[in-house]
Amino acid sequence: MTQRPAESPVTALRGPALSFSGDPFRDGLERTLVHEPDAIVAVQDGRILHFGPARTIQRLLPPGTAVRDYGKDALISAGFVDSHVHFPQTPMIAAYGEQLLDWLEKYTFPNELKFADKEHARHVARIFLRENLRNGITTSCVYCTVHPQSVDALFEEAEALGLRLAAGKVLMDRNAPDGLRDTAQSGYDQSQALIARWHGRGRLLYAITPRFAGTSSAGQLAAAGALWRAHGDCLMQTHIAENRAEVAWIKQLFPDRRSYLDVYDHHGLCGRRAVFGHGIWLQDDELQRLHVTGAAIAHCPTSNFFLGSGTFDVFRAMASERPVRVGLGTDIGAGTSFSILATLGEAYKASQLNGQSLSACHAWYLATRGSARAMYLDDRIGSLAPGMEADLVVLDMRSTPLIAFRMDHAADFAEQLFVQMTLADDRAIQATYIAGRLAYSRTTPSLV
Ligand SMILES: [Zn+2]
Ligand 1 centroid to 241 CA: how many Å? Predict the structure, then answer.
């Protein structure tokens, strides 16, 4: 007689909850916003088993289920998704005085040389992932350096935490110092070996990562395109139209291409699972092409302000006649904060400078389901629903004396949420769960 294996235990979180059942930019908040003032999220085997009003879900829980009640001043959400970030730049966040191309030369490249040393890479990866968890970021799309060992170090640390994370070795065969260049062939071979080692292992995914057209020759871009064709379920990430001097330079480097996006498109680097960082200076025909091919833009407002790059127009990119997938990115270390709340506050300011207001609920979508959709992972992460992976963040909506005072004067939930993205930071993150496991708790930070 065979014995049925014992069922894994069910655990549950209780408190106010926020999620999205679709895209509010396309379908409106009324049809997509899920705000439950007293919810239960039940978890089993790393996935969400039930989500809904506590009075309904309570009846479905097995007797004796441990329910962690976070109280009425909490907010449970799907974990934040950072769709554009450079882990090796953690040690150089807040580097003074330069715009993109000079900033790369003066600060970024010397810093990235140090990642030839795997132990240095591992040390920085640990600090980077700890900061992610402290800020409720449960998935990110990460640039490593040109060194394969920098990718191994990050993936090894992410695997130990059970994270869903995408990352890749930067491809860079020109306009970079000795020690930071590969070749079209070596970059291809090293990336292919990393894909074989890491892509689809646990929850890890590989992202083919040409840094940008300024540091990759046409031959390397073509090799990256061939690699992506051979491994179509990998992501592809690069930078585009971040800064006006960069846009002019790319035009000089590729005089035969119609546009910046066409440089990538021509080499097979535009399509589903492509995430383009920034896209501030894209033309309408380029946005149209992103829409048609299903490629995405990562909006990185703190970085754009810090480097003086410009203000990305999220409403233009997501315009209903040809909506582009848009996610949110911290872009550490040009970005200035690991806090997604602070990043959303800057996204609001960018939209204001473009003459439109980004509502807190629309902003929250960008940081969760929107970023997941940009990475083609919205069937697994980014929202609260049965079957989704149980990556969760729990906020404290009264994390500082000023915020607590301000919350007493908030008329409704939308205003409460807007107060968070304008005033709150890492102190508002009470707990972060990875696949249902408590990975960070504000009260016991030694967990990570
Ligand atoms: Zn970047």
Answer: 11
Distances from the Cα of 26 to the Cα of 317, 325, 365, angstroms: 12, 11, 12
Ligand 1 mean position, distance from CA 370 (Å): 18
Structure tokens at 79: 């974990």
Rounded distance from Cα 396 to ligand 1 centre (Å): 30
* CA 10–ligand 1 middle distance (angstroms): 39
DSSP state of 71: -
285 CA distance to ligand 1 middle (Å): 23
Rounded Cα distance between 384 and 243, Å, is 36
Q: Rounded to the nearest whole angstrom, what is the distance from the C-alpha of residue 284 to the centroid of ligand 1?
A: 22
Per-residue pLDDT of the chain (448 residues; tens, 9 = 90+): 555 566 789 999 999 999 999 999 999 999 999 999 999 999 999 999 999 999 999 999 999 999 999 999 999 999 999 999 999 999 999 998 899 989 999 999 999 999 999 999 999 999 999 999 999 999 999 999 999 999 999 999 999 999 999 999 999 999 999 999 999 999 999 999 999 999 999 999 999 999 999 999 999 999 999 999 999 999 999 999 999 999 999 999 999 999 999 999 999 999 999 999 999 999 999 999 999 999 999 999 999 999 999 999 999 999 889 999 999 999 999 999 999 999 999 999 999 999 999 999 999 999 999 999 999 999 999 999 999 999 999 999 999 999 999 999 999 999 999 999 999 999 999 999 999 999 999 998 666 5
Quote the ligand 1 centre to 330 CA distance (angstroms): 9
Q: Which CA distances in Å does 282 have to 214, 221, 274, 287? A: 16, 20, 16, 7
Q: Tell me the C-alpha distance between 140 and 444, whole Å.
A: 24
Give the C-alpha separation, 76 to 74, whole Å. Answer: 7
Q: What is the CA radius of gyration of the chain?
A: 21
Q: 86 and 132 in contact (C-beta within 8 Å)?
A: no
Find the 212 Cα to ligand 1 centroid distance in Å: 9
* Neighbouring-strand partners of residue 326: 297
Instruction: Determine the distance separating the centroid of ligand 1 and the alpha carbon of 277, expressed in angstroms.
Output: 6
- Containing H/E element for 188? helix 184-198
- CA of residue 86 to ligand 1 center, whole Å: 6
Single out the residue of 160, 142, 163 nearest to residue 46, CA to CA: 163
Among 112, 110, 117, smallest CA distance to 152 is for 117
Check: CB of residue 168 under 8 Å from CB of residue 151: yes
